[in-house]
Amino acid sequence: MKRYILIFFLLISLNGSNKIDLWSIELNQNMATNEDNISKSTKPKGSVKFEEDYDIAQKKAQEENRYIFLLVTEKYCSWCKKLKEEVLTTPEIVKVLNSHFVSLEVDKIDGYYPSNIGIQGTPSIFILNPDNNKSLKSITGYRDQNELLKILNSVKE
């Protein structure tokens, strides 16, 4: 009797997992197609130009007499993703960042950034003086477009 019960559960689990796998593959393919269509239709015309390295960003900021816009994120941070996708893609933000700041995005765990800034959480934004790495403004947490624009405009002036 135990043998029959074991075989029964084994058959159910194998059969059920095959259906789930086939369904999830089909679902993933549909999701990928939908994401491609969405990204093509809503992709912003311009985007923030992020530097790859802190030292390069610092040197560029010094040469161009600009402040550094440092965005500290984490891989699995949903608020970081929301900030990058919904706020940092708006034309007003893109224009201000690209024309008045040298922007840099770093990962909180793997990225290189000045040790004197205190990161409380992610996302964190720091406006840094490139000459001494002092933070002129620090923001922890998500901010909408209007809030971030006010902060950026107050610093750039």
Notes on the structure:
- With 157 residues, this protein is an alpha/beta fold.
- The chain has two domains: 1-43; 50-156, Glutaredoxin (3-Layer(aba) Sandwich), CATH 3.40.30.10.
- Helix content is 54%, strand content 17%.
- The protein has five helices and five strands; from the N terminus they run αβαβααβββα.
- Strands 1-3-2-4-5 form a five-stranded mixed β-sheet, sandwiched between helices.
- β4 (124-128) and β5 (135-140) form a beta hairpin.
- The chain is globular and about 80 Å long.
- The chain starts with a helix and ends with a helix.
Q: Gyration radius, to the nearest Å? A: 23 Å
- Detail the poorly predicted runs: 16-44
Q: Structurally, how many domains make up the residues?
A: 2
Mean pLDDT over the residues: 77
Instruction: Indicate the CATH class of the largest domain.
Output: Alpha Beta
CATH architecture of the largest domain: 3-Layer(aba) Sandwich
Strand content: 15-25%
The ordered string of helix (H) and strand (E) elements is HEHEHHEEEH
CATH topology of the largest domain: Glutaredoxin
Total number of strands: 5
CATH superfamily of the largest domain: Glutaredoxin
Task: Describe the largest sheet.
Answer: 5 strands, mixed
Shape: globular
Head-to-tail CA distance between termini:
81 Å
Helix count equals 5
User: What structural class do you assign from the helix and strand content?
Assistant: alpha/beta
What level of helicity do the residues show? 40-55%
Strand adjacency order, main sheet: 1-3-2-4-5
